[in-house]
Specification:
Elements (H helix, E strand, L loop, with lengths): L8 E10 L6 E11 L4 E5 L6 H8 L7 E6 L2 E2 L5 H11 E4 L11 H11 L5 H11 L15 H13 L5 E5 L7 H18 L2 E5 L3 H6 L2 E6 L2 E2 L3 H4 L6
Parallel strand pairs: 3-8, 3-9, 6-7, 7-8
Antiparallel strand pairs: 1-2, 1-4, 4-5, 9-10
Helix pairs in contact: 3-4, 3-5, 4-5, 5-6
The structure holds adenosine-5'-triphosphate and magnesium ion (MG).
The site of magnesium ion (MG) has 3 residues, from helix 1.
Length: 237
Amino acid sequence: MALLDEPAVELENVHLSLGRGPARVHVLNGISLSVARGETVGLVGPSGSGKSTLLMVMAGLEQPDAGSVKIDGARLDGLGEDALARFRGAKIGIVFQSFHLIPTMTALENVAIPLELSGVADASPRAMRELEAVGLKDRRAHYPAQLSGGEQQRVALARALAPNPSILVADEPTGNLDESTGEKIIELMFALKRDRGATLILVTHDLTLSARCDREVRLRSGRIEAPANVLWPKLRA
Ligand SMILES: Nc1ncnc2c1ncn2[C@@H]1O[C@H](COP(=O)(O)OP(=O)(O)OP(=O)(O)O)[C@@H](O)[C@H]1O
Ligand SMILES: [Mg+2]
């Protein structure tokens, strides 16, 4: 049973290697990190430092070789494959840089089908409300190819938030958008997160954006560096 005062995310000494033979890389080198409920964390660091991999571990999509991952107080490694998939579907919303919408489904179906698969009875009206929340009600019958990049990312955001996850993880959600569209997506994401009291973990290369988060976590070579906002006061643009 998850207790209310448990952190949203708690990692303890997480190690992970990926790849085989000479391509094997020790990607995460003993990551310990605790994220409070409702906190917004900006995950920054050079390319290849392990940011995306760390998000995948937090989202239960990669299993660490050693160490533990707890979400809302529940250890992920104790769950079987099916239970893990259900837990993930209910608790964690994921937004990727490149949207990952299903091209043969309309905007509405992209949001509704995953809900339906997770056993939600009123999937379609709920998906409709989520599309409305991101301002896309009148684009519900459009296929991804008929939507702009910003609109596709809003559908992806609606899909991620539809199950009312307690944790939203976003991997460079504005990386494929122009600056002003990206800014709108970020505003929307922060507003929706705030309305629902969710925890947000955001990978970004944009230092203005990470400075807007409650906390910045900096990765280098699979390790967490001393928090930037403790050593150097945040520079706000
Ligand atoms: N399946 C894999 N097999 C081998 N190495 C991998 C695999 N996936 C990732 N890596 C390596 O792990 C390191 C971290 O990758 P990751 O994608 O987490 O970096 P990142 O910080 O998200 O970088 P970027 O900012 O470029 O997106 C990289 O050096 C990458 O080459
Ligand atoms: Mg990445």
